[in-house]
Design goal:
- It is built from 20 helices and 17 strands.
- By secondary structure, it is of the alpha+beta class.
Length: 500
Amino acid sequence: MCGIAGIWGQIDQTSVKKMMDTLIHRGPDAEGMFVSPTKAGVLGHRRLSIMDPQGGNQPIYGDRQARVIVGNGEIYNFPQLLPQLAERFKFRTKSDTEAILHLYEDQGIESVDQLDGMYAFAIADGDKFFAARDPIGIKPLYYGKKDNAFVFASELKAIANFCDNVQEFPAGTFFSSETGFSTFYQVPDIQPEVDADADALIREVRETVEASVVKRLMSDVPLGCFLSGGLDSSITTAVARQHIEKLHTFSVGIEGSKDIKAARLVSQYLDTIHHEYLITPKEVQEKLPEIIYSLESFDQDLVRSAIPCYFTSRLAAEYVKVILTGEGADELFAGYTYYKGIPDNDTLHRELRRSVTSLHNINLQRVDRLTMAHSLEGRVPFLDLKMIELGQRIPAHLKLAGDPLVEKWILRKAFEDLLPSEIVWRTKEQFDEGSGTVDLLTQMLAKGMSEDEAQAYRQKHPEARLRSAEECYYHQIFMDVFEQPESILANVARWSERPV
């Protein structure tokens, strides 16, 4: 996992170096820069060494020295791509990023269709430039213009000082300097079979989740699991534990919180090497500016869930470099409470698909930023493309089922033999609720901003559509931690604004 930055259309090494320095947390292990010999542009890279730690530094060069890649992410089908590419190209590293470059050399811009993974990369090919972002937007990328040059970086904070108009590079999209932007992936729009065989789908869910987790165990450095004690992280941990003898798991919360207790139970049941950290109001208040700076958002729901994610990532980074998370299961299998209020299955099915397509700048942004703030790579098995396709085929009535309705019913059934029943059928709670963060914030925010102060603050910032005194407080911190917040503000997504 890494940070990338660059300017295509002019030579400006100073600006690229400044962007790279802003991204040092994404790649503390090494840095590299490519300056086009034809003066076409500059590519920069900060490296977090995961695959081929000794030999995989970037930029990586192709058969021609003017053909170069900088990349961020993991290509999970690298072992399958390697044999066919090795017949035609000489590999200089054991890095999966080199496979992207050779695939491009072999097939051009159509090469993205063969990549299975999470990624954002940029390729210099003589005077031509090519960039792409993974289908769901697991890995971040932003772009803008500076004196008609194309500027890009992994995080908003790195690019905000160089471009007035910064935009998110769309998920499932590539950019060619010759043809512009093109979409190569969209979440499948499938009408599920209402009378589908439930038992067969339960088996398929089990097999697909297991394959998705195993695929993401690829690593040349230590790997562990976030373990909140909820269903999704417990399933991910249970599958990983079958393949890793000494598996490290990580949990945070306030003393006596439900997540802490549940995570201990799962860890004991699965025999993992478990680590936990108890957070306090004082520490959260001290770290909140850093959390919001890392997150690049002031959205109330996102900040709340970012707080435990920050502390879990900090804890995990002491032991591992790669972490598996349960992100995406709620959107695929109807895990949030508000889904229960949707009046019919067809509408629920459409809302779940919309939820998956909107993850890139909400929950996936949180996972990426808070893990990478601690130089930790986060992987999300539930957002494997085969998992997403299967999720669209499963009828909504198998996701919310029973009386009263039970969220993620089919996912629970698929793994009810692998975990304690009190975990499998545990009531869904959001990360910030189960960890006790909401209770902790209530104590902390009593000293933050009063309702009267919040009302006055809203009047000063009507464009932000601030929902509460709590969100006003986060917005105030947001405005303080960024020197030039305007470009970042323009890209803040609002988790709460969900049309149904």
